Amino acid sequence: MRCLLVLALVVCVSWCGPIPVQADEETDKQAVLASWQEWSDSFSTLRIRGRIRSRNQLRERFPETSSLSDEEFDRVFYQEHELIQSTSGDFRIANREVFNSVVQNATLRGRNQREGFACRYTPMANGDLKLATVSIISIEQAAFRVDFLWDDGPAGGSGNWLQRQILDSPSSLQVKPPDGHEPSNCIRAEMIAEPVAGHRIIYDLWLDRANQHFPIRIESRLFDSPSVSERYEVTDLARHPVSQTAYPRRGVNTCDVDNSHTYHWEILEFDTNFEVVDQFRPPKPEVGTIVYDRDGTTIGDGVLKAAERQAVIAEAKAAVGAVGRVTEPIQATPNASMAWWPIAAAVTAAIIAGLVLQKFRA
């Protein structure tokens, strides 16, 4: 009897062929990767301006806003980000935090092929922003993350979209059979990240078939754990009218298992393939700006030798005050936008010298 059952199974397989599920999943995976490559090739530069709102947390901080509707609240409490990004990895992101229609904090962060930079602005009474500090940092330190750009996983903080992360490592993507929970227009997939701090993380994905398989839902969880630790969900997709690049227009992010932190976001402007002029360079210091050169290098050819550094400091003393603030406007040399950066070295030295002098006087 057992032999007959085995024989019947062999005959059935030979007649019907192999079960097509795995073949279908591999076909879907190749379709996903092909559409992501098309999406990636549709732009060389991106500009995105969006707003992020966290009503629950802010309403707790400002109980006087309880009488405002959600729409009224969103008009006066928000974070605004403007991200400019190139496929070479260069970027700059300007952030403003607005409470009750007043800018409370403003920062600028970016990097190019040589260095990163981080800037802080002081909001003025008339609404202008004054450049307070400029810090030169390493390319590795110039990481960023904004809620409307899902940037987690193996390259978290790199500014690299999920699609490009997986295109760089296609073996990390696995298409899964439908489980009945995803929308009918979506492919279900997962990405398995390399272990971080001893923990392997799984990212469950819903990919929209009609819009270049753009991820409209991403949930992260620990391996072998059903509990979701973070969810990224797109509620409205759009396409750029010229490049046809799919992008998320609205969405909501939820952090923590108990959903205690929820962020609603909206992209107000999305532009592709524009000309880059000097967007990825640090801004020139204004009068009163403090400049920091954290790693002891200059922008350009590399590390200054000790004698060269002393010469630069001596030459800069006439233009830089003893407390390390720019006391006169410093003009950039034509076609050398970073010409003012040798003065950055003098600034740090002047600050240290001033502190040491004050200590001895005390």
DSSP summary, beta strand count: 14
Distance between the termini: 101 Å
Computed structural class? alpha+beta
Q: What is the CA-atom radius of gyration, in angstroms?
A: 26 Å
Low-confidence stretches: 1-21, 296-353, 355-362
Name a few traits of the molecule:
362 residues; outer membrane lipoprotein receptor (LolB), chain A; 24% helix; disordered C terminus
Task: Describe the structure in your own words.
The N and C termini lie far apart (101 Å). The chain has a 14-stranded mixed beta sheet with strand order 7-8-9-10-11-12-13-1-2-3-4-5-6-14. A hairpin with a 5-residue loop joins β9 and β10 (214-222). Helix content is 24%, strand content 33%. The chain has 362 residues and is an alpha+beta fold. It contains 7 helices and 14 strands. It is globular and about 65 Å long. The chain folds into 2 domains: 39-272, outer membrane lipoprotein receptor (LolB), chain A, CATH 2.50.20; 290-361, no CATH class.
